[in-house]
Amino acid sequence: MSVTVQRIGTTIRTFEIGDFDQVMRVESSFPSPQSEEWMMGHLRDGSNEMLVLERGSRVQGYCLYEEKKHSLRIIRFGVAVPHCGLGRMLMQNVQRRCITHGHNRVDVSVNEYDVPVQLFLSRVGFTAINVDGGRYQFRFLRGE
Questions:
Q1: What pTM did the predictor assign?
Q2: Pair 75, 66: CB distance under 8 Å
Q3: Which residue from 67, 82, 89, 94 puts its CA 20 to 30 A from 120's CA?
Q4: Per the domain annotation, does 75 fall within a domain?
């Protein structure tokens, strides 16, 4: 099912296979990018979905997540250009999806040294709930 949200020349929609190269272009800009095989393996898993954020005809961000019975778990999230509101738009869309699909929460795990992402998650409504094995666990609770 394709979901499209449009704002200020930006579209957030369900991933299509033709988006893969552009998603990997965004992914390759990170200090520790995942491989094409890793990404494709997660996309083939029937419980995982991906949203893409498109500006113009270019994918500028994505969110790969697993849909569980009562929650969403973000597996990988990224935007091509930080600090311009694209990440906030994408994350708010994921939070709305959590609510409209009847889930109770969104969970995400972040490397303990990735302070910019930790601060970003705090600004968009997530709360740090645990530290486990060098990773901070963040949670967005429905209704908070």
A1: 0.88
A2: yes
A3: 67
A4: yes
